[in-house]
Amino acid sequence: MATDLSRRAFLARSALIGCSAAASPFLTRISLAAAPWDARLVVIVLRGAMDGLDVVQPYGDPDYASVRGALAGGPQAGAADLDGFFSLHPGLAPLMPLWSAGDLGFVHAVSTPYRDKRSHFDGQDILEAGANALGQVRDGWLNRLLTQVPGVESRTAFAIGHGEMKVLSGPAPVADWTPEVDLALSPQAMRLAERVMQDDPAFHAAFTEASMLASGGMGLPGQPEKADAHVEVARFAAEQLRGDTRIAAFSINGWDTHGRQVKTIVPALERLAGTITTLRDSLGPAVWGRTAIVAMTEFGRTVRINGTDGTDHGTGGAMVLAGGMVRGGKVHGQWPGLDEASLFERRDLTPTGDVRAPAAWILRGLTGLDRTAMEQVVFPGLDMGRDAGFLR
After folding, report:
1. What local confidence, expressed as pLDDT, does residue 116 receive?
2. How far apart are the first and last CA of the chain?
3. Could you tell me which Pfam families the record lists for this protein (predicted)?
4. Side-chain half-sphere CA neighbours of 300 within 13 A
5. Beta pairing class for 317-322 and 291-297
6. At a CB cut-off of 8 Å and minimum separation 6, what does 192 contact?
7. Looking at the 3D structure of the chain, how many domains does it have?
C-alpha cells in the first residue's frame, strides 16, 4: 500500500468504516498478570500525550499566566489548589478527596529519553519498552519485570476486542481481556489516521473537533461506545486484583488536544478520574491500601497554545500516582521554570527527570527486586537516581 494517502481518501475511507479516531477511550486490551507478592500495581498509559501543564497547573510560576494564555488555570479559574504553587484541573476534582487523604500525587517535568521528533508511535513504543531508544529492546518493561520473579503465572483470558499492551508483551505469561464495547476504530485504522494527521495539526484539530461534536466524545451516531466503558474496565481489573492478580495495565485515550483544548481534554480527564475512583471503590479499603496506580504518557505538549486553541506535541509532561501505597499529597519533581530561556527548544517544558525512575522506585518497593535488576533488566540504561519516597 502506498504510504502517501490524501486527506480526501482518508476521510472517504473513514466514512466507509463509520468511525472516528477520537472516539474510543479504550483501543487496547486490559492486561493482567499474577505474581508472588502481595502489593498490587495498575499501570495506565495515557495515549495521545497528556498536557501536564493543564492537568497539574503551575499557577505559582511567574511566567505561567503569560505563556499559557487562554489555557491558564489556577484557583482563580476554578482549579483546586494543591500546595500553593500547583493546582488541579477541575476535570479531576473528584480525585481531590484522595489528595487530602494522601492517596494521590503527581510527578512533574518528566519524560522518556525520546526527543525532538515527537511522534506518538515512537513515543509510545519507547514508553512501553522502557528503553533509552527505539529498537533497544523488543518486549515491555512490565513483562521484563515478571521474568525476574519466580512463580509467575497467567490469568484466565477474555479476548473480546483488539490490540495489545506493549508494556506487558514478552515471554512472561500474562492474560488479556477486552471490554465488550463497540470499538469505533480498529488499531490499524487508528495508526493510519495518526500517520496522516501527525504532521498537520490544523487537520488533526478539525478532525477531532468534528468527531467530538458528532459523538459527544465517544463515537459517531449509530455506533456509540458505552459511556461507562472505563468503569467496566476498572471494575474488571479490581475484581482480578482482589484475587491472585497483581498487575493490571490498560490505556485511556483522548489526550491529543491539538484544538479547542478547553473542551477536548475534559472527557479524558473525566475518564481518568472515574477510572481511579472506581478502582478505589471496587478494590475495597484493604486491597486499595496495598495498591499503587501509575498513569503515564508518551510526552507532554507545547507550553504555548496554537492557532486552534490547543497545544501541539511537546516534551516534558506529568505522571499521576494514586493508591493506598502511594505517598500522596505531593507534587514530586524538580520544577524547571517557564521563562523562555528555561524551555526545551524554547517551546516545551524542559524535562528534569526520567519518567522511568519513579516507576522503577515504585516497582522496587512493591516487588523487592534490587536496583541492579531495575536499571539493567527492567529499564536497561536507566539511572534511577535517589529514592524520592514515592511509596509510604
Report:
1. 81
2. 52
3. DUF1501
4. 31
5. antiparallel
6. 5, 10, 13
7. 1
